[in-house]
Amino acid sequence: MNSHKWYSARPLEPLGGPSDRVMNSSHESPGGHDPYSTPQSNLGRPLEDAPLASLYQRLGGALVDGGLSSTCLLAPLFMAGDSHLLWESVRTEDKETMMRLLSGGEYPLTAALLSILVVFDLWLLFKDGQTIGKRMVGSRIVRTSGVRAGFIRIVGLREFLSRLLYAVPFVGSAFMIVGHSMILLPQRRCLHDYIADTKVVRI
To answer: Exposed (0-12), middle (13-18) or buried (19+): which is 129, by Cβ within 10 Å?
Structure first.
């Protein structure tokens, strides 16, 4: 009596056969990209092809940074109920009282808040070439070649040296107006960008 063959007589396919190819192809997208592959990082790659930050991004970042600084200066004064002293000094053009109220000497919290803000901004500039405002609007400071801008270049040339230039008596205000107006040119670079060989890109 013949025994019943319960197993299949079909030979096993070698690894990499049609069934494996069907299984592997199911993991690939129509474009040939495997979504399960290890993602490739863009860190360290030049950003020469990154688009320039728009005027709205440049303005938005500046407004955020300025708003944070103003909050650090004014919040302690309002909390102490001394806002009327500031308005009175503005009305009477009493610059001495105005500077005393805003310098942080009268309100230790002012100095503390400004110190925290400055340290955090410096850390962001060192790490990513960004301030809080630039991070919020999605922009970044880089060299004109697209590579990472160094901390000394950003802080020493782009910020400190340009502010010294803007503070020159009689002509500093003109430098500031002309320097910031240069952002309207196609290159979208202010005077401080030309001084430091930098540009602001969208990320």
So the answer is: buried
Q: 141 φ, ψ to 5°?
A: -90, 125
Domain ranges, residue 174: 55-202
Sign of CA dihedral 92, 96, 97, 100: positive
Q: Which of 171, 133, 160, 129 is nearest to 146 (CA)?
A: 129
Return the closest-CA partner of residue 67 out of 77, 79, 75, 57: 75
47: in domain: no
Contact 111, 130 (CB under 8 A): no
- Give the residue from 86, 62, 89 showing the smallest Cα distance to 76: 86
Which amino acid is located at 10 in the chain?
Answer: R
* Residue-wise pLDDT tens digits, 121-147: 999 999 999 999 999 999 999 999 999
Number of domains observed in the structure of the chain: 1
Residue 44 lies in a domain: no
Q: Is the dihedral of CA 81, 84, 87, 92 positive or negative?
A: negative
Gap between the Cα atoms of 157 and 197, Å rounded: 9
Q: What is the pLDDT of residues 147-178, one digit of tens each?
A: 999 999 999 999 999 999 999 998 999 999 99
